Amino acid sequence: DAMVIQNPRYQVTQFGKPVTLSCSQTLNHNVMYWYQQKSSQAPKLLFHYYDKDFNNEADTPDNFQSRRPNTSFCFLDIRSPGLGDAAMYLCATSRAGAQSDTQYFGPGTRLTVL
Amino acid sequence: GQQVMQIPQYQHVQEGEDFTTYCNSSTTLSNIQWYKQRPGGHPVFLIQLVKSGEVKKQKRLTFQFGEAKKNSSLHITATQTTDVGTYFCARGGSNYKLTFGKGTLLTVNP
Prior knowledge:
- Chain A is an all-beta fold.
- Chain A has strands at about 5, 10-15, 20-25, 30-35, 45-50, 55, 65, 75-80, 85-95, 105, 110-114.
- In chain B, the strands form two sheets. In chain B, strands 2, 4, 5, 9, 10 and 11 form a six-stranded mixed beta sheet that branches. In chain B, strands 1-3-8-7-6 form a five-stranded antiparallel beta sheet, with no helix packed on it.
């Protein structure tokens, strides 16, 4: 089945130790998104790619970076995780046939920072 | 991005009771999407509304888009324990982005 896959599902890192989260999709969608979701809150968009074009949200800290080497894969790099970065990180994709197409979410990676 | 206000924040019902969550905007919406997130899960798309006054149904779920396209609602008839989760509305915007409401957490007492 076509889907959005995130690895790992759970990630534990130490304060200040870089971590990379990965997302892959078999939907062949143009747009890939990274969201941060904290407990009892809505998903907060960090950035998204339209094909290779990177779109950063104005309030996304520089500590968060992303790479999209090809259509199928997208990575979230947290350069120096702080305790406040502990959250669920959700990857999503959309077809981009319209400006606001349905978004398909992966299962998420829950990040713990010790 | 422009906000969408969603109420209530929490709703606890007895199984079999109805449930409604509301989404409001101060500006006209081009479209509104609804997502459901089960506890421990990820958001799953339910529906998109585009037309003024649109009403769509999915089994026990009824979705409405206001005539002025500034509000929307999701109504669940005769809730079941499987309806538990957080329901988010999300407004479509430019550049392929969605702006999510804060969500309504529904709990159902069996």
